[in-house]
Amino acid sequence: MEANAGLVAGSHNRNELVVIRRDGESGPRPLQHLSGQVCQICGDDVGLTVDGDLFVACNECAFPICRTCYEYERREGNQVCPQCKTRFKRLKGCPRVPGDEEEDDVDDLEHEFEWGDDHDSQYMAEAMLHGHMSYGRQGYINNPHVAHPLPQDPLLTNGEMVDDIPPEHHALVPSFMGGGGKRIHPLPFPDSNIPVQLNDDKTINLTAQPRSMDPSKDLAAYGYGSVAWKERMESWKQKQEKLQMDRSNGGDKVWDNNDDESDLPLMDEARQPLSRKLPFPSSKINPYRMIILIRLVVAGFFFHYRITNPAKDAYPLWLISVICEIWFAVSWILDQFPKWLPIERETYLDRLSLRYEKEGQPSQLASIDIYVSTVDPMKEPPLITANTVLSILAVDYPVEKVSCYVSDDGAAMLTFEALSETSEFAKKWVPFCKKFNIDPRAPEWYFQQKMDYLKDKVHPSFVKERRAMKREYEEFKVRINALVAKAQKVPEEGWTIQDGTPWPGNNVRDHPGMIQVFLGQSGGYDIDGNELPRLVYVSREKRPGFNHHKKAGAMNSLVRVSAVLTNAPYLLNVDCDHYFNNSKAIREAMCFMMDPLIGKRACYVQFPQRFDGIDRHDRYANRNVVFFDINMKGLDGIQGPIYVGTGCVFRRQALYGTDAPKKKKPPNRTCNCWPKCCCCCCCPGGRKKKAAKAKQEKKRSSSKIAENGAPAYALEGIKEENGTEKPYTTAEQKLEKKFGQSPVFVASTLLENGRTLKGATPASLLTEAIHVISCGYEDKTDWGKEIGWIYGSVTEDILTGFKMHCHGWRSIYCVPSRAAFKGSAPLNLSDRLHQVLRWALGSVEIFLSKHCPLWYGYGGGLKWLERMSYINATIYPWTSIPLLAYCTLPAVCLLTGKFITPELSNVASLWFLSLFICIFATGILEMKWSGVGIDDWWRNEQFWVIGGVSAHLFAVFQGLLKVLAGIDTNFTVTSKAGDDEDFSELYTFKWTTLLIPPTTLLIVNFVGVVAGISNAINNGYESWGPLFGKLFFSFWVIVHLYPFLKGLVGRQNRTPTIVIVWSILLASIFSLLWVRIDPFLPKSDGPLLEECGLDCN
To answer: What's the chief localization of this chain (predicted)?
Structure first.
């Protein structure tokens, strides 16, 4: 991809594709001008027609082919264009061939994916990419005259270089020359006429092909040998034997400095694991587990007493309280037991470098595609997005391995221009970061940090260059702010680019797909002449009448675009406000993903979310410390943490809906001394059951393999004894149904290591990239159902991670010493409640869908403790209903003079006291092993009540309306001005409907406290005893709602009148209702006194 190719905009469905130049050149250009005038088959000039015009063989895509290759392809080949697969039409001056009389514009896609039956998936995918991106495009096995391109000959090491052995020293096995006929390129291709007997009733036609050789066997067995390889193997064996002898003689022996042994310690260190688990000390975790079990037993006795001893004078209150308490107990169990096996992890970055970054050799670290998603630049400031992109481009990782894709789902020209400015500033910022090794590498936060920036800096020019860079960044900020100011007023005719071309995204709901490569393989160099990572702007196509699935749809579009352009085996997604706080974050993740021991089964590595700009007291629990430092570490000891939507490194193959690799079970250690007849006598049906089970498993695995991808090709050539072929669905139809109708993307899914075709032209790559982001590409495919980000909930992150765990994958929780990413969190109460509302609404949608963890995913690889955590993540909003009722009970008890329990006996008091002690002990021990402070723990408890009686309650009703009635209700927020000082937004108040229920609860409980105390004063000292229990109950509610009360009143008592009016009205109605039913004045049990009418005076 070239960085100066311009903005490519187009629609695959409308057959539109234009290129808009950045440098002010004349208007839109057709895409074929990108390809040059050189034949893509033979390399000669395309030439001219008989009329003197440029020769164009294909009128559909203008793929450059000279007249000689065009006539040969029509005469001897398959008569279709190698790029778009449209049949060549007869041009003026060209001889007629059979088929010219047929109907024009007939695509020949019938054999698009037919390859050798036993092809290796990697080589087959390479051939597919060749088949659609360069010449020799297809493998038509039935046509002996078609040129079959062959990938590079496989090495002995299955396609990977081993140390310093050059490719010419590797042994190769020649292929058979078969098929006959003329070929444009004299490359050998396997013969397709070699039958192989599989079973007694099946045969398969295999192709002889270059195959990798087993290094443990003698090379003479293959007919060829390699002196370099033999010497290498002998030297390696001698070193291993000597290493074992030294270990057996003494483990602490100092290594000699001989030349032959100098690399042994290095080699031994490079073979060590890249990470390890760190279980918590038993002195901390065992008491925690014991108190959980004790609390479970005490809760059982507590509920036995509560159920068997109802309050007869307040039966409704007792019944409501018992139901609520049982629900709370179930929620506690679902939340508590997934924290039974908490662990921590440690990484070894030095070992990663020793293994994959050897001196004098290219880096063997895996490539990674990083996604940044943004929608509205007015709500997500472009300066924040620019800082995130700059931190990505300056990350401590090989530049050729990093690609950054920015998804602009709002098609805003402001985002496009801001990204253009960012790419220019990155040419100065990135070399500065790498020269002085600074962190963080987001300039806004680097220049704002309050610390000694001279610490550990020894370069004499650091201060001078830092001042110059700060001045450059301030100028950059001014340019970005000018763009934002300009975007405030939209012109009537819409936005236009510098060359006068209308901006394709002027209509946000109806615009073509757009792709712009800002930094790429050419043009992407910094001021020092070093290469920069790729930076690609992507805005997917949007049309009326299509469901675009919001963020999940945008992420799936990025998955497909990146697969076509770079196809890295790993993906990292971050929100536009989450920047790289640790430049080595990718290396931290690769210590798990590239670890041979655990990496194969890891679907993603999740980092915790950390935030900047939060007040010291964290009034509204924005940091979520309890969740990230307790719950997530507990899940990491089971099957891994849940996906939280940002700061996560994915394995691309796991996103494609594949199953996790199965663990190899060790062989059963059974005694072989008994004769088989004894075994048969003891277990007469055992062998039959085993055989039937093995046959069933084999059938199941073959069907799964056929659905999942590459091995499905092996099914096509299987025939029955009578020679009839089995009615298998062709692999082409299966892959198109699963991944869509892009041959290049489908071919890329078969490449586990993420390789791409380097010889592809920019024109063909951009054509496919525009195709895969078209609005109708996902129709009738598995996208959003089994592949990529899963649709059906606004919290697509939980659903996506849940599906991966159901496929048997495990995830990993990585908590580096320096936070990997940092973002921004809502400071004021209203924004925080709306954030919690969106999360809770997504959980309700999952609970009411087919993907609910209560009934989905059984029989897969999901562990039962992991399932409990997902159940808890989907049912927690429903706790708002019993929580609201339970918080109302204290006020009711104070107003009526009744209570939810009868008079307590000594035994009953013991159970109540024991339960409270266990609750506090659980929290204290949890804080001890996790390191969470008591203030963070208490803030989490408070906001659990605040969010439960407000945002969670509205999420339940909104989810029911949306899922059952199809009514999508949104709660709007109206902003009011804040103070111009630090944390001024903390005191900014925004009116929202979510504030009414907790405000009403506060007023009702305050009224109840006043009424209860007044009643006790009127009735004497005997009523003070029962009053204390009721007051404690009410104060429990008020203390938990105290942060809400503080945010509601604010620092300057600017609570909106509407909140006060509504809350007082509801509280008054509620209080007067109870006064009417049960007044405070004591009733007299004596005779009824009436006025006699006589004047006693």
So the answer is: membrane
